Each structure stands twice: as structure tokens, then as C-alpha cells.
Amino acid sequence: MQVGCDPKSHPTKKWIDGHMDEYEDDDNKHKEVAGKAFCTTNDDCTIGDDLGKTLLKTGKCVKSRCQCSYASSWGGPRCTTAISGSSSTTVTSTSITKSTYGPPFGMSIGVASIMVFLSFISVMYASAKEKKAAVLLQKQMKTAADLRSHEQAKFEAERQSFASHGNDARQRPRDNYSQNFV
């Protein structure tokens, strides 16, 4: 006896799916099942095996046979196979959007497109705001430079007026400054 999920003595699900003609004939076609395995307790028909601590109960034992609680979501003889996630060799008429989990593909593309658009608008807004700030800063710098040149010209004019009167700061006063203390 072999123990484990994939014992060497038994073929894998992938191999069985690839060689389905060896497992079915005209009288016994392959079909997906939901429940009907033999059971003794509800834990035999749900995920979690003998632990039984899971809150998600996928099936229950009714008259010693498994019955799937959510037949559209869980399948297999013991209600432990996710229908949308399982690979089946039978051809069904459902589209890919009906056989997968999550939001529809079109909605995902729509949300992604909106996010890209909003990101682009955000970058453009930030760029325009930065450009306005740069223009304002240049105006302030020009105003400050004009004010500085005006003050420099005023200072130069005052200095010239003192120099023309002979009141040079390096020249000593004419009265006896050092003796005029009270």
C-alpha cells in the first residue's frame, strides 16, 4: 500500500486526463460528479479531512452518501474539488469568464485603464503646478534683483554726495574731537 498524494502505483490526474479513452467506453462515459461517495460523518465530505476545524463546510453526509452543499462551487465524490479551479476534459459551454474566480476580465481591464488615466492626469497636474511655481520664483528673483540694484544705486549716490563735500570717513574731524569730553 502506498501513502501520499501521488503514489507511484497510481497514475496522476494529468496522465488520466491525457488517456481518458482508456478509462471510459460507450456505456460508461466520463462525467463530473458532485458527491455520492460513501461516508460515515460530515467530516468525510468536506475539506479539512480529519481535522474538522475549518469553518468552510463543502458537503455533508446524508444517508451514508456525500452531498455537496455548494454544488456549483464544489465537486468531486467528496465535495473537495473546486469546480472553477479544476481542469476537466469534458467540453462545457461556459466561457472563461464564467469558469474562473474573481471579477470579469472586462471589468479588470476597465479598472486598470481608469487607474492609468488617473495616474496620467495626476502627473500632468503636478507638472503644471511645478511650472507655475518656477515662473513665480523667477518673478520674485527678478523683483529682488531690481530692488537690490536700486538700493545699490541709492547707496552709491549717497556715497558720492558725502565725498563731494569733503566728509570722507577716513578724514579726521577738524575740531579737536579727542578733547571734547565732559
Automatic annotation (TrEMBL):
Location of the region described as Disordered in the Swiss-Prot/TrEMBL record: 156-182
Record bears the keyword Transmembrane: yes
Major subcellular site: membrane
Protein name: Unnamed protein product
GO biological process assignments: (1->6)-beta-D-glucan biosynthetic process; cell wall organization
Coiled-coil ranges per UniProt: none
Any one GO CC term of the record: plasma membrane
One Gene Ontology term of the molecular function aspect: glucosidase activity
Keyword annotations: Cell wall biogenesis/degradation, Glycoprotein, Membrane, Transmembrane, Transmembrane helix
Record flagged with keyword Iron-sulfur: no
Transmembrane segments: 105-126
Domain of life of the organism encoding this protein: Eukaryota
Species name: Phytophthora fragariaefolia
Location in or out of the cell: Membrane
InterPro entries referenced in this protein's UniProt entry, alphabetically: Skn1/Kre6/Sbg1 (IPR005629)
